[in-house]
Amino acid sequence: MHGRRPTMTSRHGMVAAAHPLAAQAGARLLAQGGNAFDAAAATAAALNVVEPFMSGLAGMGFATMWVGAERRIRVLDFVPPIPASFPAGRFNKRSDLERGPLAIASPGNLAGWCELVKSYGRKSLAEVFAPAIALARDGFALAEFGAAEFEENDPLLRKYSALYPAWSRNYQPDGKAMHLGSLLVQSDLAQSLSEIAAEGPDHFYRGALGEKVVAHLKALGGTLTMADLDAVKTVWREPLAASYRGLTVHVPPPPCEGFQFLLTLRLLEGLDLASLPKDGPEHLDLVYRAIRLAAGERIAHNNPGPDKLAEILSDASVERLRRRLTDGEPVSGPTEQWTPQDKEDPAHTTSLSVADSDGNLICITQSLGSPFGSGVVVPGTGLCLNNFLYWADVQTGSPNRAKPGDALAMCMSPSISTRDGRPVLALGTPGSYGIMQTQAQAMVQYCDFGLPLQEAIEAPRARLWDGRLVEIENRIAPETIAELVRRGHDARAFDVGWTMRCGGMQAVAVDPETGVFTGAADPRRDGYVATP
User: Fold this and answer.
1) What local confidence, expressed as pLDDT, does residue 339 receive?
2) Alpha carbon distance 313, 310 (integer Å)
């Protein structure tokens, strides 16, 4: 009402995703007797079709889930290590790996989707992939966000003469630019998904489809090999957890960088934010300072071992940082990688949350890296490949300098929160290094100020950058931004009230007493909630 999205509820399951057709694909699996794991994989595969610039089977990601039958949280890691073939010594700056065949890391998303279905699903891979195959084969009309992505990235990709022809033939075969309402048909992708549905993931990782990918990359000067694809394995991990306002918030452990999100919450836990005016300078100043301090710890101790991680999240460390948080002196420092990066943030990621009536709850965050990943589309397959080696630290002198075989630190944070040992919230967002920032901001709105889930996601957010720079959606009052400047932030307003630079959050809340699910989808993208 009153210009806001309504609260969506159900007792039979819920899917929140970044596109209506993808959310509907997941809901279709629930309606057909599948569970949350089938629906999550179906939603993820459908996003490959309707958000080809954001994620796909050639990307990578994490899933955090509550498994109802086992009454426990599990994490599925489908971020493969840096390929053994990666020629790390060739590079000394991040921009060398923004696009092209050398930027491509081993794809993990397909392995993750298939592992979810194999381990916990009820449906066959053919049933799970059927909605995505139909969308790719029949086509769909671009909505506003998708049209904007094509309009923005077409001229950027034209600069890469070795990559653009295959990309353009795949996404605009008649040579016409894509706009709102343009029909996007992806016959080659439909065929690839159909082959995988029939033959299983080995068709990609050890078979003919993978051979096509490797051969094309070799022709472009890439180094990825079939041995790199064969080495891809999903890993089940124990979650990392921290308490916040009566919740226990669970995220993937390192090499996932979600511990920054937990550390931010730990710092804020000791403050009475609820007593402050919501979206006022006192509230925002403390949240931004906590985010920057937590980011500094993550960057200084990237991919920490268990002992170091325990130290970072310990009461003593939190108290030390909290004293800095509340001392009133400006906080300055990096938010991205070891050395300051350009403010431009090309990460394109998507997140989805799914619940079912069997008590399962799952949050997936997956990505291609940059818009359309590496920009490499393999002819005849419909596959757009990631550029995740752009997120490997190759900078000379960095203590985190990447080597072949290293774990790839990943700025994602799909979360499941429990209360008294029962699952109550799945929440995740895209946004590169801003993921851990914007999730913390939304949790404060939801937990401290008591906003309904949809309103908490809609509330104004900010993106912090290296140094003291913070950009804030312009729905925050100008006098509040001026006061933040006085307090030492290089604060400025975006020229819009809603921007995907502040994420694209999807969430599902569960009332354990009534069994009612509440879904919420971010209007900063084409987010949507669907029910069976």
Assistant:
1) 52
2) 5
- Span 124-162, pLDDT tens digits: 999 999 999 999 999 999 999 999 999 999 999 999 999
Are 282 and 276 in contact by the 8 Å Cβ rule? The answer is yes
- Cβ contacts of 174 within 8 Å, gap of 6 or more: none
DSSP reduced 3-state for 445 = helix
Q: Which residues pair with 9 in a beta bridge?
A: 518
Which are the contacts of 167, defined by CB distance < 8 A and separation ≥ 6? 157, 372, 375, 376, 377, 384
* CATH code at position 331: 1.10.246.130
Q: For residue 228, give both structure tokens.
A: 């790199």
329 in the same domain as 364: no
Residue range(s) defining the domain that contains residue 424? 238-343+413-429+464-504
DSSP-assigned letter for residue 447:
I
The gap from C-alpha 335 to its chain's centroid, in whole angstroms, comes to 17
Residue 397 within any structural domain of the chain:
no
Residue 442 domain flag: no
The CA-based dihedral angle spanning residues 223, 224, 226, 228, taken in that order and rounded to the nearest 10 degrees: 120
| Same domain for 199 and 112 | yes
Cα separations in angstroms, 321 against 252, 264, 268, 290, 485:
23, 10, 10, 8, 22
The DSSP secondary-structure symbol of 181 reads T
Work out how many domains the chain is built from and give that number.
Answer: 2
pTM here is: 0.95
Q: Which two tokens stand for residue 250?
A: 């669970």
Q: Distance (Å, rounded) from C-alpha 170 to C-alpha 189?
A: 9
| 232 vs 341: which has the higher pLDDT | 232
- The residues facing 471 across adjacent strands are 463, 492
Q: Which two tokens stand for residue 439?
A: 């999730």
Nearest to 387 by CA among 400, 371, 408, 403: 371
Q: Is 104 exposed, middle or buried (0-12, 13-18, 19+ CB in 10 A)?
A: buried
* CA atoms lying within 13 Å on the CB side of residue 499: 17
Contact 135, 45 (CB under 8 A): no
Same domain? 232 vs 242: no
**318: helix, strand or coil:** helix
Neighbours of 216 (CB within 10 A): 21
Whole-number Å distance between alpha carbons of 512 and 219 = 55
Q: Check whether residue 168 and residue 317 sit in a common domain.
A: no
